[in-house]
Amino acid sequence: MKQLQENLPPGQPIRLVSLTTDPGFDQPAVLKKYAERFSAQDNRWTFLTGDKTALHTVEIDGLKLSVVDKPAGQQENSNDLFIHSEKFVLIDKQGRIRAWHDGQEDATLPQIIAEAESLARE
What are residue 17's phi and psi, to 5 degrees? Predict the structure, then answer.
């Protein structure tokens, strides 16, 4: 996300949103520190937390992403609480999903930027 933020052209109405999958820990103050750590621009990149059920509804039903809580016996360490998607979802001005991209593939960054710019012009 930081690379994406750094490579988006300034002045474009493109927004980045990160949803927590651990709202019990990721309170607003924690997310603020995380945003500072990655130099998130306030007018470009937003970090959201809230009720776990509501977040999962957005992630699973709205964005069509996977989020699964890991049972205690399957957790490898204290931070290993869930399995979640690492996809980027592109949403247009009408709130429609237009694309999903692998968030772990650096090679997709130019394609994400090009598609985001195209959506911003619509």
Answer: -135, 130
Q: What would the CATH number be for the domain defined by 2-121?
A: 3.40.30.10
The domain limits of the chain are: 2-121
Reported as a single tens digit per residue, the pLDDT across 61-98 is 888 887 766 666 765 655 544 556 678 899 999 999 99
How far, CA to CA in Å, does 100 sit from each of 9, 28, 64, 77, 81? 20, 27, 10, 29, 24
User: Is residue 36 classed exposed, middle or buried when 0-12, 13-18 and 19+ CB atoms within 10 A define those classes?
Assistant: exposed
Rounded to the nearest 5 percent, the helix, strand and coil shares of the chain are 40, 20, 40
Q: What is the pTM of this model?
A: 0.80
